[in-house]
Amino acid sequence: MTVAGEARQAEALLPTALQLTVVVAAYNEAQTLPLLHPRIQSALAAVPGLHGRVLYVDDGSSDATWQVLQSLAAADPQVALLRLSRNFGKEVALTAGLDQVTQGAALILDADGQDPPELLGQFVALWQQGYDNVHGTRIARDGEGWLKRATAAGFYRVIGRLSHTPIPADTGDYRLLSPRALAALRQLRERQRFMKGLFGWVGFRHVALPYRREPRMAGDSKFGLWKLWNFALDGVTGFSTAPLRVATYLGLATAGLAFGFAIWVVGKALLFGDRVAGWPTMMAVILLLGGVQLIALGLIGEYLGRLYEEAKQRPLYLIDSWLPGQAGTVPGK
Ligand code: UDP
Ligand code: MG
Predict the structure, then answer these.
(1) Top mutation candidate among 40, 83, 90 for ligand 1, by most atoms within 8 Å of CB
(2) Judging by beta carbons within 10 Å of its beta carbon (0-12, 13-18, 19+), is residue 305 exposed, middle or buried?
(3) Largest Cα–Cα distance in the chain?
(4) Which pLDDT band holds residue 327 (cuts at 50, 70, 90)?
(5) Four-point Cα dihedral 151, 157, 163, 167, nearest 10
(6) What average pLDDT does range 229-248 have in this prediction?
């Protein structure tokens, strides 16, 4: 091997040990990004020997986010940018970012400063101790209302019961993934992406890093209650078929009750004659059965709809532009 070749090989071996890409999905975060970036920069600089870079994914923002990102990239060679062709949602934006991290580990961070970048050193330290999935677990959620906390707590309880995939409670996307966890994650190409579940599915060595979730630095949350509800539905249907089984049991129970009721009605008519009464009971039974059937149909529809999304085999996302240009990457597959 040539000297240059050897040097290249040594370089490829050495920095991989401590190569880290901070992946930030940003949707209309023009206000927060200029505040966040210096914090990430100093957190990266504080870890000795770390080769850090920051990859911002603009998830089809409609404000000045892309301009802000471009000026950050112009001023800092550590910054790489990716812009999606439209707003695909946080889960897909993160996927797009993680797809680009082919060397070293990745740290996922929210753009609004709720996940303090200052903890970066602790994440890296745990990774160096051999953990593949260092996930930030919220011990406090400053600046989140009681409704969001209560629904979040309820959601983690439900999904914990229903799903066989371990999904740690109070754990968001703030986490570090080792190269092999990343490689594994890249193989999961399902359309309906519930990242917390996918991270759990991958397995390997997990460890929790407790932290205080701070309030947003500026701007508003993009996740209203309705969006969160749909997100929860995606989580449950993506990681459990228990609701389908519930529908089966509901059907069985109703059929059992209906059978008992039928015996009682027929018996009564045989013993005491049939005096064409009982309109209210009949209505009640019809409505109840109709309702139960619709619920079961709706449940099946939820799964069928998701199957349909999978069957279309569309790319997960499309890239509008990326900086610096990386030839040879096949985006979005
Ligand atoms: N985000 C995104 N695409 C979206 C919505 C949100 O990339 O369609 C990003 C957003 O810019 C932020 C992160 O996801 O970096 C979390 O969003 P947000 O702070 O609104 O959610 P919350 O913290 O309130 O759950
Ligand atoms: Mg936030």
Answers:
(1) 90
(2) exposed
(3) 104
(4) very low
(5) 80
(6) 82
